[in-house]
Amino acid sequence: MRKEFILFVIVLVTISVSACDKLETQFDKNSTNVPYENEDFAMGTIISQRIYDNNAEEISKKVMDKIREIEDKMTINKSGGEIDKLNASAGIDFVELNEDAIYVLEKAKEFSKISNGAFDVMVGPLVKEWGVFSDNPSIPSAKKIEDLLSLVNYEDVIIDKSISKAKLRKKSQVVDLGGIAKGFAGDKAIELYREHKVNSAFINIGGNIVLLGSKPDGSLWKVGVRNPTGPEGTYIGVISAKDKAIVSSGDYQRYFEKDGVRYHHIIDPRTGYPADSGLIGTTVISDLSIDADALSTATFVLGLEKGMDLIEELEGVEAVFITKDKKIYITKGLSSSFKFEDDNNEYEYVEKR
Amino acid sequence: MNKTKRIVILSLMVAQALVLSLIESWIPLPSPVPGVKLGLANIITVTVIIFYGFKDALSVVLVRCILSSIFGGGFTGFFFSMAGGILSTIVMYVLYSRGSKVFSIIGISIAGAVAHNIGQTIIASFVMKDVAIFMILPVLLISGVVMGFFVGLCSSFLERTLRNSKIFT
Amino acid sequence: MSMNMLKKGDIILLGIIAAAIVISFAVVSTYKRSGKDTDKVAVIKMKDEIIKSIDLSTVSQPQQIEISGKYIQVILVERGRIRFLDADCPDKICVNTAWLSEKGDMAVCIPNSTMIKIEGQSDKVDAVTH
Fold first, then answer.
1. Could you report the per-residue pLDDT of B8-29, keeping only the tens digit for each?
2. Which chain C residues have a beta carbon less than 8 Å from that of A247?
3. Which of A41, A96, C57, C105 is the right S-S partner for C113, CB 3.0 to 4.6 Å?
4. Range of B71's domain?
5. Domain for residue C16, yes or no?
């Protein structure tokens, strides 16, 4: 009996050791429950990353490098980038673009189209004239706005994919990827995380949140929706999600005040003035952050009714709308993952429309 | 008792322990923390300790752990239940062999359940590389007492029945 | 039914386990509380560089820190909390963010590429979309 018992123990130990080996691979050596967090400035905003991985620091640096590369290519605030060259050659010639720029331009055109121009990638001349992103914004004259409106037409972006070139039809036309480039950068960040076998991470590019997987313990990420009238960091509800992009637009982001009137940074490409649709904030949830970015701007410009219609038409896209009269509306598909939280009883949550 | 009969009965014990684990998996147990279990298979462990002693009890526990992980527990589950199982068998045997006059089957079973949960938590903290897992220990201790009491009650009934049946003689 | 009744040793055993439960609860709750009060470290960053790191629980007297980049900002530190007090940047979003006192709280000045963050993660939300 004694011998048998010893033999039995030996067999067990062998099994355990081999199982240990398997266990080690099952619990990926790179995954960890300890988050790495990093904040950095790029694309004119702050970028925060939280990565659960033993190589997190290195990966976060690669992501920042990629984002700066995208910024350099797509910015119109510095010269030398591809999009800047495209604008400089407006009405003159085709400009060679790399595949990222072509992809973003095509996406931008697509969303300009489905939003009927409420989002328009050619809004550049108006944005420049208002100067909301500059140090000295001003209100353009009505005449000036009328002139510039004739330049705003997304159909004037001519893309020739076969030769990887694009052109703007008229002189002085300006492509502005401000409403979509951050969204694209978010998708690229997630792509890089995946390439490095990260299972759990998120990136926050100036309020655009892009989630990879769920938290390491399997629970969903919790993303607050900014209270448009409260101080920074306060929120009116929480969205629980994984593997989603969550992007917001609002009149609180950038604005200037003149003679007691607040002029915010989201210009309605159809009127030439800051959008006045009755909304003070929209949040869009979708699989790709480039989509969510374009759609949050589009819905903010469209307003509650039309914005809601647009989102309900699209598959896999949900949204939160916050109106001037402090009511909160959500799309049907979001009801189980959105939790209304307003400590000040300032807002009203309208469950059904 | 001859060897063959002994092996047959021990095999039956393993089979019954597996069935009990299976039944247990059908009973939903709302719990705020992972690791809270009824531990019905412990009824068998207690019984084998009483009638056969330590070595056989340990063998039954180990074989049960291996088989149940093959049937669908996975490696992690295997390690957790093995660590808990070994520790609880040792504790229960020591209490039974040295102190069966002062400890009832219920008391022994409670000690076993608590030891099981402590063993599991230790292994979990190693696997997760995170000591924060010990935060759930208080809850696991309480659940150990409750479940251990229930298991002990069942075991003492079973013991009486088996003694009367003379199956082990 | 003698086997069913609790014996003397059982009472002692239950006493020991009860004590263990009480102690482990106490340890866990003090651990949780200590995690909340201490390790509250505020980090002041400019671009991706840490300028200063302050353990907020050890601040005995309020102090002001001035940082200058493109703009000049004044940070006020008190026990357990920190904020941008004043700045000459155009939008003053950093000043409007008010006090930071919880883990994960953050105040940012984009024009000056500066930020204050309290290290750690909030247990309420992981991020806020804006």
1. 999 999 999 999 988 887 887 7
2. 129
3. A41
4. 3-163
5. yes
